[in-house]
Amino acid sequence: MPAQSVNSLFIDGQWRGASDGSTREIRSPHDSSLVTKVSEATAQDASDAIAAARASFDSGLFSSWSWAQRSALVARIADLLERDAEKIAMLESGDTGKRVIEADYDLADVISVFRYYAGLGLSEHDRVVHVGDERIDSRVVSEPVGVCALIGPWNYPLLQASWKVAPALIAGCSFILKPSELTPSSAIALMKVMDEAGTPKGVANLVLGAGAVVGAPLTSDKRVDLVSFTGGLATGKAIMATASQTVKKVALELGGKNPNIIFADADLEAAIDNAVTAVFLHSGQVCSAGTRLLVERSIHDHVVESIAARANAIRMGGPADLTAETGPLISQAHLGKVSLYVEKALAEGAQLLAGGKRSTHESLAKGWYFEPTVLDNCRTSMSCVQDESFGPVLTVETFDSEAEAIALGNDTIYGLAGAVWTSDSDKAARVAKALRHGTIWINDFGPYKAQAEWGGFKASGIGRELGPSGLHEYLEIKHIWTNTSPARSGWFEDSLERESK
Ligand code: NAP
Question: Would you place residue 1 in the very low, low, confident or very high pLDDT band (cuts 50, 70, 90)?
Answer without folding.
Answer: very low
